Hints:
Strand content: 5-15%
Helix content: 25-40%
Structural class: alpha+beta
Largest sheet: 5 strands, mixed
Number of helices: 7
Amino acid sequence: MNSEGVCRRCPKAVVMLKHTGTGNYAPIEVAPSEKGNIMVDRQNGTYTILTKGALQKARDKGHPLHLNHFASCEYARSFARTSASKTALAPVGTQIPHERRQQIIDSLASDVCGACGRVKRRRMSHCRACYYRLPAPMRTALYREWGHGYEEAYEASIEFLKGRSVAA
């Protein structure tokens, strides 16, 4: 995934590289920085975060060091996953009336998204567009089993999507 591009929020050139230890991808700034602490291997599409002695050795040898773009982008907080994880889900066991449970079942059997009215696959909670508007923890919660949190997760997703869905 060694794809070079520009940050979605600011004009900095970044490249998505894979961390050699964790395997996680991160946006690394293309231009070297004096404040950099990241050694980049563009051949393999990887990066390594240098600390203490290794960082000083790399600087002494004149190796170009880079920054994780999240460390310098003024809009970095808008990309943070923590805000999505704070989205409230109803606790499992919340009393959902029988009539509403039947509506949720009907929605699953339907090919119309209950949030926006677009076409969706049967047995799916939402259309693709609405599903990807949900924060990751909320999407994950939609995989709970019926009677073990699915209904609550579905209700929370509908509430979240109110006013956020794309026009049909």
